[in-house]
Specification:
Number of domains: 3
Structural class: alpha/beta
CATH superfamily of the largest domain: P-loop containing nucleotide triphosphate hydrolases
Order of helices and strands: EHEEHEHEEHEHEEHEHEHEHHEEEEHE
CATH class of the largest domain: Alpha Beta
CATH topology of the largest domain: Rossmann fold
């Protein structure tokens, strides 16, 4: 029996580099979420996702690989974060490779020695039954029965999830009961952070969530996969999605970076609100503009943050010049809010969060058709539609057809030749009258009779 009214247990996948942690993460999660690549050390940040394992809601965590010898400072930081993830884990899936017991494995075993009650030893890359006997060498680790699996081929995954289920039921029986929250999902806002490498996305993510979940470095391209953390502001739960930096396609040479950029784009399409982070010194890049314009075409809401204004009271003239430059470079986002912030020092963060919530409220707003058409009558009385070649254009009625994205349909007597300037006039009136000044808005014309 699965206990109810309990928090989600945290299931952490740990192991040395290139042992198959991300492949196992994707297998258990049910789709390709973590980047997998033969290059050791691809995963740097801990990746978290909510999912269901054997019918039990969990938070599944993929960690970076632990090395015995460090090639650079990243290896040290990644290893430290991976080992520290054991402190908050309810169950650790310790992944080793069949036929290979290494110093890295021994290092992780030492960290797990005081936590053996919450460790499940999983021996990966046992793709055929004939290899299973090789798993016996791992009994020497003192972590219980080793389970041979193949995360790449799915072998023994049913057995693994069954054992996970049994362990989690025992673990959750010790959890204190919590009150169920109504409409938890509807209260959640998904926020994607995008921008070119080293614009400050990971620093902003950590600032928003009050954590150090995203690895921060002066080296561009530190973040390779999306990192999801949570925050709260004015009663709203905010899932912050920190993405990899978006470079020009010509510079996206590595397989790893190709997947990183694609996932950044997909994160924008799936988010409620996207923050486009712009380096105040370097300004917008062409890649920023191209990728963000794709999101706007899909009706996604974008808030622009001009980062690295590290003085508490920035010089008004310099700030205005920088903001005017962004507006001039990116007219397609003329409706989008633009705010100065310092992700490093925290200046402007509260205003940014307030603006994000306001934009989300706007894109969730639905206007009654009657109210909309009463306003339409006033607009057309004051500014009638133009005529062309002696023939007048008429807007019969207008209706809102969706939120997130905000879309309207206006039924007109003649669609062909309808002046685009008047369509934009109607869009601007809708924005002003009904408060859609922070979100993209679409007005489609259709021929129809009342």
């Amino acid at each position: 029996m699965i206990p109810t009214n309990h928090r989600r247990p945290r299931v952490v996948i740990a192991g040395r580099p290139n042992v198959g942690k991300s492949t196992l993460f994707n297998r258990l999660y049910g789709r390709r979420r973590a980047i997998t690549d033969p290059t050791p050390g691809v995963t740097r940040d801990a990746l978290e996702e909510r999912c269901s394992l054997a019918g039990i809601p969990v938070t599944l965590v993929d960690t970076g690989g632990v090395k015995a010898e460090y090639d650079d400072d990243f290896d040290d930081i990644v290893a430290d974060r991976s080992l520290s993830s054991f402190d908050t884990a309810d169950l650790v899936l310790f992944l080793v490779e069949i036929g290979q017991l290494t110093p890295e494995d021994e290092l992780i075993v030492d960290a797990l020695r005081s936590r053996t009650d919450k460790v499940l030893l999983v021996v990966n890359k046992a793709d055929i039954p004939e290899k299973d006997y090789l798993a016996s060498e791992f009994y020497s680790l003192g972590l219980g029965d080793p389970l041979p699996v193949s995360s790449a081929h799915g072998r023994n995954m049913d057995r693994l999830t069954e054992i996970v289920r049994e362990r989690l039921e025992d673990i959750m029986a010790t959890f204190p009961e919590e009150e169920e929250e109504d409409n938890e999902e509807s209260n959640e806002l998904v926020l994607a952070l995008v921008g070119k490498p080293n614009a400050g996305k990971s620093t902003l993510s950590n600032q928003l969530t009050g954590t150090q979940a995203s690895l921060v470095s002066d080296v561009a391209g530190t973040t390779r996969d999306i990192v999801v953390t949570e925050s709260e502001h004015k009663g709203r739960t905010i899932r912050v999605v920190d993405t990899a930096g978006m470079r020009r396609k010509a510079k996206v040479a590595e397989n790893v970076e190709y997947y990183s950029v694609n996932r950044a784009i997909r994160a924008m399409f799936e988010a409620d609100v996207t923050v486009l982070l712009i380096d105040a010194d370097e300004g917008l890049s062409e890649q920023d503009k191209k990728i963000t314009a794709q999101a706007v075409k899909k009706g996604r809401t974008v808030v622009m943050a001009l980062n690295k204004w590290d003085e508490k009271n920035p010089d008004p003239k310099r700030l205005k010049a920088a903001m005017d430059r962004v507006r001039f470079q990116f007219p397609v986002l003329d409706w989008a809010p633009l705010l100065p912030i310092s992700a490093l020092k925290g200046y402007g963060i509260r205003d940014l969060l307030d603006t994000i919530l306001r934009a989300d409220r706007q894109q969730s707003r639905r206007i009654d058709t009657g109210e909309l058409n009463r306003a339409l009558a006033e607009w057309t009385d004051l500014t009638p539609p133009p005529t062309r070649k002696g023939k007048s254009f008429k807007i019969r009625y207008i209706t809102q057809v969706s939120t997130k994205p905000v879309r309207f349909i206006a039924f007109v007597n003649r669609k062909i030749g309808f002046p685009d300037s008047y369509r934009r006039f109607l869009m601007n009136q809708i924005r002003r009258e009904f408060g859609f000044d922070f979100v993209p808005l679409e007005l489609e014309l259709r021929e129809g009779r009342k």
